[in-house]
Amino acid sequence: MATIAPGRLHDVSNAADFVALTQTNFEILTAEVFKHVPTYVSGVLTSTIGPPTTGSHVLDETWKDALGGVFKCTAAGTPGTWKQILPAGVTADPVTGTIPTGYLILNVIQGTLKRHAGSYDWQTVIGATGGKIGFYGVTPVTQPAGADQAAVALGNTNGEIGGLTISDPPNQAEVQALRDKCEELADDVRALATLVHALRAALVSVGQIRGSS
User: What does the DSSP 8-state code read for residue 21?
Assistant: First the structure.
């Protein structure tokens, strides 16, 4: 019995039993539209995770894989070019099967959208280069950056001051050495304060902390 490509619906033109074929078509529509079953291939539900890897497909054709991920054909061909338009809803991150890199899932237990990085490594990436992000209702901004966020190279090392020689009474050179180390320590504190304030400003700008009560 002829079907209307690319789906499973039967062609009822000049059908000997129009009513029966129409009923069958309604059953097919119910399964695929309301039950959201995976796409049928050669009369059986596909077991493929990801877009089709065989067969001829047409532009704008949709495909539902074994996990429920939905793909759209963006260029006709064999098997065509596909883009995932809906993630597969799962209760646990998949750890079996052949899963393409870049495959998207929505872990409904965790409420997290994840991307397959290969070898069952599921990752969540928030934002992209040049994109804007905002948390807790703040206006989204690009990733904060600035010279004040640079790592601080401390002048003092552990035990430097405690290791100074102090006579009783101390001489001028010893007092001078202690003063120099204290000033070096003050420089470290000022540098760290600059970094802390820069980090605070960055966190406030994206809404990660409020910054005040």
Answer: H
